[in-house]
Amino acid sequence: MVAPTLPHLSPAQRERLEQLADAARLRTALYPSPKPTPARRRVRSRQYPGGWPHLGRTGRGRRR
Question: Percent helix, strand and coil across the chain, each rounded to 5?
Fold first, then answer.
């Protein structure tokens, strides 16, 4: 597929754009993007089956 030429760019700007596009393609080929890490599952405790309580609302978690 041939990319359309942009008429408002000078030949020097067009050449620079082609160089940047080639560099981006080369970087993509050499260094593929890393796969995302799997999402961690939240650990539920026996004491708090629905998750940990909001520490600002409980009397135990307050710091002074």
Answer: 30, 0, 70
Going 18 to 19 to 24 to 29, the CA torsion angle's sign is positive
DSSP 14-34: HHHHHHHHHHHHHHHHHSPPP
> For the chain, how many residues are written?
64
Q: Give the tens place of pLDDT for each residue, 12-59.
A: 999 999 999 999 999 999 998 888 888 776 666 666 666 667 676 666
Contact 36, 44 (CB under 8 A): no
- The pTM of the full predicted model, rounded to 2 decimals, is 0.44
> Contact at 8 Å (CB) between 25 and 17?
no
